Amino acid sequence: MKEALLYQKLANDEVRCNLCNHFCVLKDSELGICGCRKNVKGILMSLSYGQLITESLDPIEKKPIFNFLPGTSSYSIATVGCNLRCDNCQNWQISQFTKDHDSPFPGYETSSQEVIERAQESGAQSISYTYTEPTIFMEFALDCMKLAHDKNLKNIWVSNGYMSRACLELILPYLDAINIDLKFFDNNNYLKYCGCKLQPILDNLKYLHQHQVHLEITTLLIPNHTDTGNQLTSMAEFIAQKLSVNVPWHLSRFSPDISYKMPDTKATPMSLIDQAYKIGQSKGLNFIYVGNVADDERENTYCPRCGFLAIKRQDYQTEIFADNGLCKNCKYEIY
Asked: 102 pLDDT band (50/70/90 cuts)?
């Protein structure tokens, strides 16, 4: 355990956690919504500090991050826990552990220095804070991020985007890239299926883009959920108009077999993937990618100007045809 960085002491030993947009107010001995923060006699403690549940060397494309350091490896770490409770979660065994178990906090104790050393030994060019929500282990992630930059390792977050502005301000000096899930474009859906609100996520996306962090967005296409109303059109318009047509949009296929609480929902049909892809194209997005679909050419990166194949991807194998970020055919600078 370690004392949390972002909290406010209140009367009667209560505290307000300022880490994410839930802003939990906790009495003595109470846990936050994430299950990873506990009020201990008026002091907010991070239970997840240094308690890794997993670490591995991954292709950066697995995050998914496609337009930042393509073809490289990223050293990935996670603790258990999440500040959301998404019914569609596909990594729920560890993200929802603190909500489904009463056992002691799991994981093995690791120092930030050990993480950096193992990342260097692995040959990775970056560290990814992923698998679960990095916001809930922000203090440990931040310590790793500071050391990583000293060793010329890039820092990548894979996040639900529900962190507070105060959290963003702490990590921004060390954050190089981030992939944020934009799960729905409907506040009621976010409340019903995730237990959070939409607007803070949209605000954080704009804030990250304004501060020139490399940003990519993933949308898990859930039939009769993500595609109801005008959500897909609204998502594409938001990315194009409020962020940039160069922000990559990953359209990921939903699998009920590995979902947390939606086993009876059908897998994403290709027709929905095709529909979303065409909507993104119609709004002028330059980089739209299809995920969880085998051998789909829409995993490749093409030059927005001339259509030349810049990066070919298949089964996390990457072949780069661009020259230092420039299209070999027309010399256009590819984001």
From this structure: low
